[in-house]
Amino acid sequence: MADVLKLHQDPDFQASDVPTPNDFDKLKEKLKDYEPPLPGLEAGEGWQSVTVDISVPMGKQPGSQIGSTTKFSVPHLHHRSITELIQKIIRTNPDAKDFHLYPFEEYVTRNDATERLFGELYTSDAFLDEFRKVRAEPPEPDCNLEKIVLGLQFWSDATLLANFGTHKLWPVYMYIGNQSKYVRAKPTSDGGWDVAYIPELPDDIEEVLQQLPTKSAHQPLLTHCRRELFQNVLLQLLDEDFYNAYKHGMVIEFPDGIKRRVFPRILTWSADYPEKCLLATIRENGRCPCPRCFIKKSEIRNLGTKRDQRMRLQRRRKDNSWRRVMIESVRRNLYIFGKAIAGQFVNKRLDEFSMTPNENALSQRLQEFGLDYHEILPVDLLHEIEIGEWKRLLLHFIRMLYSREPGDVWVEQMNARFRAIPIFGKDTIRRLPQNVAGMKRLAARDYEDILQVSITVFEDLFGTEHSEAITKLIYVMAEWHCLAKLRLHSDSTLKHLDTVTTVLGKELRNFADKIAPSFNTKETVSETTARARQREKNQKTLFGQVLASSAARVKKYTLDRYKLHALGDYTSTIRRLGTTDSYSTYIGEARHRIKKQDYRKTNKRKFKLQMMATKSRHPAISQIDASAIGGHRPGHTDGTNNEPLVPHLRYDISKRADSTFHIGSFVQASATDRAVKHFKSQLSDHVLCRLRGIPYSGNSLELPQDCSALRIQNNHIHCHPTMRLNYTTYDVRRATDHVKPYLKFNRKAPHCQRSETRDRSTVMLSTSDNQQSSSGFLYARVLGIFHVLASEVGRTTQEIKRIDLLWVKWFSDVPGWKGGWETRRLDRVWFPPDSEDMGNYGFVDPADVVRACHLPPVFSCGEDAERQQSIASDEGGDYKFYDVNRFVDRDMYMRYFGGGVGHVDRNQVARTLVDTADNHNGNLDEDEDDEDEDFEDQIDFERLDAILEGVDDEEGEVEDDGEEDEEDSEPDCDREEEEEEDEDDDENIDNDYED
Ligand SMILES: [Zn+2]
User: Fold this and answer.
1) Burial of 928 (C-beta count, 10 Å sphere; 0-12/13-18/19+)
2) pLDDT in tens, 630-650
3) Which residues lie in Acidic residues bias regions (predicted)?
């Protein structure tokens, strides 16, 4: 702003020099016709544009004994040399210095037991096998360079570039598995590279197909041509150079100045199901729909059984000579002898195995090096579960609710419950849409959120006969999803995943065979409308007229889809390739979003070329960034941009409070509220325990007779709007929870009201020896986040200490309720009916809090309106019960499962926390200038008020640590914004992909 003013005052300044909006319009108009130079094609980025030929089998022409073929050329395959790209990445990419060149196995030892860990690709068996194989080969002639393996990971998937319009992009992305997944899989990371934009089969293929002797061959041949095109594009990518690099390696100088011989190895190729079929040259949804094995559709329902597990091994698809000879023979008949593509000859040989008559490019080029293309196609949690099987199951639940009488009541109730689910984290559980039943515009992560809270929502919606079985099914599904998505597995978690898969299979069969058939399920309203709209569209194009929409069709729940079958492959895939986040299609989908942004920057003409140029600029820009800050890229150091402000501290509360109240006035103003009844005595007892370093139980009075020794400065409590809780996740990353108090304290008055952000007020603590909880955790609603300045008279040093504390309302276990895997239900807590004792409220040290937690209300049991009103309860009373959502995120789940690598033994946690808290309390506020002038001490507060005098004089003793205070003088609202940006964006991948 200052610069603008300066400019304005400059004597040479002419107002007419400033461009008007009109000028910008003109400029825009000019830019429309601007053809950008294409640095991507010229400046050594290695991009080239080539034509791909396919050969179309035209069958026998009349009067001929042999078949004829036609060559068809598809222009504009934009691609770049993979080998050149690899060289460039290793030589110039700033991340290359962090690549793991030597794969290793990872183990954890606890309680004298050692377990293998599964996570990164470079700790996986697939990587280790390739590494050993390469090392075992004899060295290249006259070469004694070290041999290393570069684990390549590919993604491919077509995407629409804009919501409106037909521009599509079908990119192939490449990632390097030697780089940590925590870096490369971040949506904001530059860890991926575009290697090709696959062209679509152009419309003029129709001219060729017009010459076909029979019309019936038209559609199958078109499909065949698409498959041929895809395989020929792959052949182009896996070119001569790539083959040679696979065979002999490439000598590349690494950032450490050492030359090594690099052997690229394709370890994963992630794609959705249709694309996987293209890659594996099999027919989509055919008789054997799985790209990894020959399971028949009718056998899919056996998921999780011993027989099913055996089948997966015995009937594994292999790229063996049987397959190759079969395809070769079919192709010979197709191309040379003119057999029809959809004719008996072809069908008889391939249909049974759902194979397609295409040569597989991966097999052609790389089979000789031991690559089996069936093995590099990993599972795909996003498409198979979140918008696959879970979405289908949810849809069927909704159909079942519609089928229940009367009318829409049950669906409306479900919608209302979803809306009332409290949010969690910044976006772990987001506010769910108004109409979940409509299932409109929901992204994959919405379905994930819905799954994580469905146990609570559906509890009693299906009537007494079926509700329990259905919530158990959801419980198993939620646990399965949690396990499949873990970022760090061990032998024991994988073993449990196997168990859960078996149970899930059983529950799903029970559901499909016994529960679902007892509901008369039809299409939902949205389904019927969607179908009618689709049909309208088709009719229009066919006859130019619209037919009336039809009635809802009957819909059954079946267990014969490939996606369901895929659930049985997760354990083996994780054992072989590491955890699913390493090759998830989320990563590719996130990169698609960047592509869409790039597309918006183009003038939409020859957009692929322009996007290639943009892509070549991205890495250049990050390199400039990197050198500008001394090679240190923010957010790349620990793989998360969620770096806490003071990461070594257990928790973090702003130094300055946003309001302050007088203890006596507050207690008096709320005299009739039972939440406040023991406030004063519990507070002083807690503070005194903290000063003396005595463990505090959380609610009872430990030192009732000693309270007269306590001095609290000005008798004031300082309130904070937020607390950041740092913790180590099960996969040994840093993470932070944000806790907001349930109550909002007014600045100038001792009154408070319920805060708008009270959803975030629930926390969990570890139990200590004398506390009882079935889950091993205690749960509390944080009413206020406070600090006081306190000291104790009669001690040798009367140092004033800042004591941070949380005023809490305790939840208790619901008597007789048992949650967990054995009962397949969530732990359940409640606020026991208020009694005269002080057990329901208390104070805790923030350092004792383990994490924030998610406690959705148990809707089926309703609210407890009979209880006395209190500021510590919701308007109209709290719910009677709350579920403890252990599935809210993976870290939370592992706290219940136990054995999380980043988690410490619970009792150990409690001890360490006491230590850190003491350190933290060393940082004191510099001064207390927000002391309230208008505030009158109207009441004589015997004990506590007497304390006042002694402390005021000692203010000088309060130490301040100078430097940091300046930053803290920022108002808290700014700070809040910072926090929001700080939060981890890792899982925030919106996915508009519709299956
Ligand atoms: Zn299979």
Assistant:
1) middle
2) 433 333 333 333 434 566 788
3) 924-939, 950-995
